[in-house]
Design a protein that fits this description.
It contains four helices and five strands; from the N terminus they run βααββαββα. The protein has helices at residues 9-16, 20-28, 45-54, 85-187, and strands at residues 6-8, 34-37, 40-44, 61-63, 69-71. The strands form two sheets. The protein has a three-stranded antiparallel beta sheet with strand order 1-3-2. Strands 4-5 form a two-stranded antiparallel sheet. Helix 1 (9-16) crosses helix 2 (20-28). The longest helix is centred in the last third of the chain and has 103 residues, at 85-187.
């Protein structure tokens, strides 16, 4: 094979009316055979010609309301894009792929919404438990406060009991000492 029957990637992309990236995808998918000469990637011209012949002539097309790309047969003057048919087909495939991905994502969103609903239900059930814990903490604090008050009152009662006992002892001493005092006062 001589190099005159080979073309560059740029020339092939131009003939096919596609970008270099799209051409590289064709090469990776082995739709087009290549040959390397140093850093250059060469493509056999006879491998490109059948692909070029399958590409229809550019024709005005538009995307209808259902999302399909169709040839323009409209008579009225409406806004629409002039797109080569091969590009329109590519866009249609990309659009369909994007729709499939969106549908998958929507299914995931629905599943996640379902799981979120389940978690919200569990959370609603756990709120009474939280309220119970809070009320238990409040009750515990009230009990501790009551215990502090009880301890304070108990100390006051002990003090009053001790004071009462002191007064009783003093009273008893006075009662016992009264006859002695009377006797002592009578003698003088």
């Amino acid at each position: 094979m001589d190099t005159k029957s080979f073309i560059t990637r740029q020339e092939a992309a131009s003939l096919l009316h596609v970008s270099l990236r799209t051409l590289d995808r064709y090469i990776r998918r082995k739709k087009i055979k290549t040959k390397r000469e140093g850093k250059n990637v060469l493509i056999l011209e006879k491998d490109i010609l059948p692909l070029v012949q399958n590409i229809p002539v550019e024709q005005e097309v538009y995307q209808d309301s259902s999302g399909d790309v169709v040839p323009d047969t409209r008579e009225e003057d409406k806004e629409y894009a002039l797109v080569p048919q091969s590009t329109a087909i590519l866009f249609k495939r990309l659009f369909e792929e994007a729709q499939r991905q969106i549908e998958k994502k929507e299914e995931k969103i629905e599943m996640l919404n379902y799981k979120l609903g389940q978690m919200e239900a569990k959370l609603k059930q756990s709120i009474p438990l939280l309220e119970h814990k809070e009320s238990t903490l409040d009750a515990t604090e009230k009990i501790k406060e009551q215990e502090r008050i009880l301890l304070s009152v108990s100390q006051k009662v002990k003090m009053l009991t001790m004071v009462k006992n002191v007064y009783l002892i003093l009273l008893m001493m006075l009662v016992i000492s009264l006859p002695f005092l009377w006797f002592f006062l009578m003698q003088h």
